[in-house]
Amino acid sequence: MFKSRQVHLEQDEAVMQRIYELRYEVYCEEYGFLPENNYPTHSEMYEYDTQSLHFGAFNLRQELVGYVRLVQADAQREFPFQNHCKLLFEGAVLPEASRTLEISRLMVRKNYRRRAGDLLAGVRESFKSLTPEHEARSNSPQILLSLYRQIYHYSLKHSIHFWYAAMERSLARIMGRMNFGFEQLGPPTDYYGVVAPYLANIRDTEILIGQKNQALLTWIQRPELNAAPVALAVTTA
Prior knowledge:
This protein is α+β, with helices and mostly antiparallel strands. It contains 5 helices and 10 strands. The longest helix is centred in the N-terminal third of the chain and has 18 residues, at 13-30. It is globular and about 45 Å long. Mean pLDDT is 86; it is low at 131-139 and 226-237.
């Protein structure tokens, strides 16, 4: 069982340090997205951290097992993905920056990605659908969903209506199977791997999940602090 929470940049310095170290392990050592020599302290820190909201997932021993951040627009009302994904499809419409956040650095610690085909987000490429069951299953993307529940509640509280995300095609397909409603905005580009920009309307996502999987929507909408554990099993091909 995993629980996620917001981690505050200044108040939670010790946890933030664990986050920087996890990001170094994943982005530098494991995937090679960033050169290790640029981070002699083995802590991946970046300028966008100060304009971001940080969220960590923890196991029962309070060990950090997953992470995601929500990046706010800069002074020019632009997001990090726009520095890399320069081309957008004709007719693509970007929402008001003040109502939008970019999902970034989504990751699950390596030893919690034990299955062949697991993506960085902790879910396997053969993922098909979610169905609630009485018993937990080892192939349920609990960490990913726990993090998404936290950013969902943060977004509702702060009147955020849209999420950007730069995702690889396989993760975008998986999010679609979970009915998260991300729509591709432009062609793939090399941005920490080959990814494309996507946009999700949070309200539309609520409606879609409710139509397809009411139990999952109920679980997401329930605040985690007071939520009873729910087993979300995955049906795979």
